Amino acid sequence: MAQLKNNNHHVAIMAGGIGSRFWPKSRIAKPKQFLDITQTGKSLLQITYERFAKFIPEENIYIVTSKDYVALVNEHLSQLPKDNILGEPARKNTAPCIAYISFKLQQKKPQAQLICAPADHLILQEEEFEKTCLHALQFTAKAENSFVTIGIKPTHPNTGFGYIQFVPQQNETIFKVKTFTEKPDLELAKNFVESGEFLWNGGIFIAYTHNLLSAFEKHLPDVYELFQKNETCFNTQLEANAIEKIYPQCPNLSFDYGIMEKVKDVFVLPASFDWNDLGTWNSLYEVNTKDEQQNVCLSQPIMTIDARNNIISAEKEKLVVIKGLENFIVIDTPDALMIYPKNEEQEIKTLTEELKAKKMTKYL
Amino acid sequence: MAQLKNNNHHVAIMAGGIGSRFWPKSRIAKPKQFLDITQTGKSLLQITYERFAKFIPEENIYIVTSKDYVALVNEHLSQLPKDNILGEPARKNTAPCIAYISFKLQQKKPQAQLICAPADHLILQEEEFEKTCLHALQFTAKAENSFVTIGIKPTHPNTGFGYIQFVPQQNETIFKVKTFTEKPDLELAKNFVESGEFLWNGGIFIAYTHNLLSAFEKHLPDVYELFQKNETCFNTQLEANAIEKIYPQCPNLSFDYGIMEKVKDVFVLPASFDWNDLGTWNSLYEVNTKDEQQNVCLSQPIMTIDARNNIISAEKEKLVVIKGLENFIVIDTPDALMIYPKNEEQEIKTLTEELKAKKMTKYL
Known about the structure:
The structure is a homodimer of 364-residue chains. Chain A is an alpha/beta fold and 364 residues long.
């Protein structure tokens, strides 16, 4: 869309995850968001950046990541000013992450509106995505104290997602949030989906930074104080040192749990775009083209014989021959090969924990 | 055994096969006999050489192989005089191979007794092997016109082997051969095994070279003539050129079919040793130590979870994680990964033919 970008619009792309459910492709040293997992020649981070760059001023795009990944982010987004990459010295989930970027931004731009979004989701309908985000930004511009979260229309009773219950209201496009529920059991998830009053939590939310800071001050005063005490360091050469001090004292807490579930003016905007969280190998299976036997082949050459419903990936030019396998995930990397039942993929995460326990860290 | 070696005793180790049923580990450029397939740090060829070197004078050990593998043989058996490696310019099965070594040897040693044996079988009881071979050599020394073949007591109705029917005779250790049957169907194989009158053809046979040559002259006169015409070239610098001319004119023919099934004085000596032809992944599965779930793991580290009866091999230090797989062959090499049902392993050979047809020769 050829409209002018609004200089108050900002985005913080959260890119600090380790993507352990995508092992052995995703590794601690180079997790999912830095991989070309969709076979487009671009990493998920690059794709996410470009999706926002269409309607957010590029100098207003920030990446919040682990300190360990700052160099990788630089490499993947060389056009990005180094100051726009925030390196967290510890993994403390999303609450400290949002506090950090909010404090920093508020100082520079008191009228900043902020979108927070994960780096590793798949959203192909970019125009619809832009429309949804701009809609949310316009809504918060009018209702300055509001928080808007993007809701995804559920297609099945997924037990791995968070659900948002909203208050249905005719002729509205944006709704008041009633409840948040994290990872329900299957029975509950089924009820949620059938009721029509629930959306998946897409992990994207929008608010004014001053509104975010007020919410931290009220609902997570300890976290607020930690950052506030060091306020004068932000956007100076002292910032890195201050953050090194602050983070170890922060609780490990999600923004949803610490803030969103507690504040009053929370709204959900149902997305008009298709969405896939690319959380697991199955989600990658879902979005990819299948061959006649419903196999997803993520590399070439792959020869399948009497093999069905598998997702198969190997290094470039490695030949894979598979006969008689059904519903498996076959992932081959230079130093690790995994052959795993597709319907047990949630346990892949525990695999990496087992490797850690066995001190086989070089495979993590 | 500390007895003197007999200078008339010779062996020709046949090492020209391409081992396509061991794909993707066995490749045309480096087939099975050159691999450390038994995880001993030695190739099958080296092990076979050493097994014979215990009772055959080392200068009497010959390797007949494809011209393409002469350098590899040199590398694996650096102690072997270069003249003891015979490079065949074309793959013509065993009949031309035996004719070649017999002509060459007869010229040097008119009283040569020759054992012909494959390079890639697994025989662990080396003393018993020596006893059996010496027994056969002694028998042919007495009965100069005889051919002795080593028979293996069948343990199951294998349809991939040749069977030798013998004339049972009390108080004998060596028996007259009645029939040869190549790869019977399952029904027939069962009858063979139950009858007690059949042994597997171990592919090892013993005869005087002059006797071998007489047999060629009588039963394969064309082949005999081809070699005989060039006789003066053998064991001279003209040999390689002569062989280049002879081989293309030779028929592709097995020694069993062309000679053994036709000559009169054929005997079979039942082996007193255990034998495995290492012909397929299953045969390797059989001879290897199993874990508690009956998996054979040929490399480390391998993590199996609810996985049973598999044979698994990867490169050194490559981590393999397998869950929920049963009765599979999983072979990972740097440029090819194969996951194949264990009970369909006979088709692995056709796989390599398919690769050839698809011009994917770099994986062969």
